Amino acid sequence: MSGSKARRLSVAVERFDLAAPFVISRGTKSLAEVVTVTLEEGPFRGRGECVPYGRFGETVAGVAAAIEGLRGPLEAGLEREPLQALLPAGAARNAVDCALWDLEARRSGARVQALAGQQPLAPVTTAFTLSVGAPQAMAAEASRHADKPILKLKLGGEGDEARLAAVRAAAPRSTLLVDANEAWAEADLPRLFAACEAVGVALIEQPLPQGRDEALVRRPRTIPVCADESVHDRAGLAALRDRYDVVNIKLDKTGGLTEALLLADEAERLGFGLFVGCMVGTSLAMAPALTLAPRCRFVDLDGPLLLARDRSPGLVYQGCVIAPPGPELWG
After folding, report:
1. Is residue 250 annotated as part of the catalytic site, yes or no?
2. Percentage of residues in the chain with pLDDT exceeding 70?
3. From the candidates 148, 152, 154, 253, which is the catalytic residue?
4. What is the CATH code for 7-109?
5. pLDDT digits (tens, 9 = 90+) for 137-171
6. For residue 99, which of 37, 152, 269, 323 is within the disulfide window of CB 3.0 to 4.6 Å?
7. Does 154 qualify as catalytic in the annotation?
């Protein structure tokens, strides 16, 4: 406990419409439901946002309840380090952890980047995500965004070869990343890896289901493969070294920036490349993740670009270039 002035915790569920339905191999969403934590301590206020991850059994109500369950310790001054043992890695801990980082920065008058000992932030280019769909629909969407330097394609297994060819024809100059969200089967790997090579894909994300990715072990490939659903925090990271080249660090998986930084350190020690990603949320969720951006091979923090309306104040996007967050937003 910090022994500082009494705190007040607020937990809110907020809803943000998407600009268009967002479709991946597991389903469609048209609304971003986020849980926001606010910690007020004297004149200082820290905030954090999380997006409950249905793939791993999280719900908005469950996440909000888990945070409420820590009201006593948080209002008594709980800080980041003991928090790690009180909540598991996941969305609830992420919102609280990021609120505590924000609060610490405001109390100290220093930016989080400095407090965390990370490289200074500079503008960074994010990938822009295209939903999975029929090849002609994805090609039309790719054509509308062909000026964007990095396009991330959601894929679904059957028909992916046609999707890849159609998008490449529509966006010949964009760097392409692909994300199957666990939708490929082992038998599909030779033809789908070949299709990715044919169109110059730069990264393949989570092709096989978590826990059923043995076919990637020492598989010869010319395109790096990134773990997403297969990696949450440092536990088990070493076991992935023989099947993945890159890890996608999402704060909603790691349970906040504190573990994300430790995961990044361990991943680099083991020889992984780093990728920082997000769920579909607002700028308040993207700002803490930007702390990792200078260390990452690719950045995928386009959540606010997929919303009909972001929160205000938010991050400033010039196309796909994200400016460092202002202190009025976070950190």
Report:
1. yes
2. 98
3. 154
4. 3.30.390.10
5. 999 999 999 999 999 999 999 999 999 999 999 99
6. 37
7. yes
